[in-house]
Amino acid sequence: MSIIPTPKTDLHTHTIASDHADGSWEEMAQAAFEKGLQAFAVTEHGPSIARCPHIGYFANLPKIAPKNLPVMMLYGVEDDLIDTDGRTALPDEVKAQLDIVLLGTHTFGWVRNVLLSDIKKGLYKAMENPHIDVISHPVNPWYPMDYVEIAKVALDTNTVLEFNLSKIDFQEKTWREFLGVAAEYKLPLIISSDSHSPDRIGFDNLPYEWLEGIEPSQIMNRDLPTVVEHFKIKRPEVVEYAEKLKANL
Questions:
Q1: Which spans in 60-138 are helix H?
Q2: What single string gives the DSSP state of each residue in 180-238?
Q3: In angstroms, how far is the first alpha carbon of the chain from the final one?
Q4: What are the domain boundaries of the chain?
Q5: Which terminal residue of the chain has fewer beta carbons within 10 Å of its beta carbon, N or C?
Q6: pLDDT tens across 205-216, in order?
Q7: Calpha distance 14→23 (Å, rounded)
Q8: What is the pLDDT of residue 203?
Q9: Tell me: domain 9-247, CATH 3.30.70.1290, correct?
């Protein structure tokens, strides 16, 4: 059995900008630094979610984000599905400017009023969008997915699926089922904290024993050079830092 090393990047976090979360960019960066991470992504909820950032926030992230943080901060979003045609709240031209784009479905979003069949139809269509990198928390008690079905769509569309550590309580059986499918189909995965506060960033609660059968090469956030290569990040300062890390491996 391969041993999965602790990932060095956390690609799903929220700050106070998402209203129901806590912590500033600087506080998140300091917490990430103290936990030995190479990078973290700030992925606020998209503009379809109440009291979450406007489109302008995401479009201007490169201008407003602080510099000289102790850890590299990636610019991202956890966008939300808004219809059965696979459209999301954030326009593609804005998503294209970000380092990483997650897509989620939340009970406080569009999915609260639709059927599971509608969610699947919209989600699978959205996965065809080249600007969507990751499906966040595919294991959810409020919309039970067919894991083989979504695995096949993920492989066909080159979409990464997430092992979300904020959703593991009382969900061991379903997560193990999902991870078993991921192992069988050799799915690319990220492991994320979905942190809503600085103290939750990182992988302190990662249940390594659930990852039996998963190969280290399947974890796309295992280090920053892998993140940059897989997600085709072009931002010069990120690429330069990843190259320095790679040279020191």
A1: 61-64, 92-95, 116-126
A2: HHHHHHT--EEEE--BSSGGG-SSTT--GGGGTT--GGGBTTSSHHHHHHHTT---HHH
A3: 23
A4: 9-247
A5: C
A6: 999 999 999 999
A7: 8
A8: 98
A9: no
